[in-house]
Amino acid sequence: MDSNSEKSIVGHIDPIYIKYQVLEAIFLSFFINLVALIVCIIINSYNIAKNGIPVPNIWFYAIGIILFIFSISIIFSIFLSKSYVKNYVYEISEENLIIRSGTFTRKRLIIPLKNIQNIEVFQNVRDRILKIHTIRIETVRSIGMAYQYTGIVRPEGYIPAVKDPDSIVSILNKKIQNLE
Q1: N or C: which end of the chain has fewer CB within 10 A?
Q2: Once rounded to an integer, what is the mean pLDDT over residues 154-161?
Q3: How far apart are CA 67 and CA 161, in angstroms?
């Protein structure tokens, strides 16, 4: 977290988030490729049962395609993750929490501190492995929308890949108390 001035605090998500995204891409790509390999085995088995001969070179092509898809998905994941980390910035000012994000489409979310109802620190299994947290910000609007539509509260804002969430939550709570 950086401090631009006494009144505004600017922070970025932790670069370890890149590892988080790459791990996710590896698992997803592995399962997609596993399905592709199983399909190739089924096709080859069907051809052996029907004609008595295997499809020539199907394994060569199947493994080549699988490795190509796997490599492209990992490279694309690294590129997107680096761009996401670089472009994800949060700023805590005296009256607002401003979150700027986006790889292809830039987005700026301004959450007035006076509207914040709940701050939740969340950590899933991968977060625990990487020792990071996600901070979820629930507002009057997000809670109202939940009751109106599904009953599920979706946070209006979130800050992923935070190493020290307690300091951010503490700063937010102090600034919210100063508004009252």
Answers
A1: C
A2: 84
A3: 30
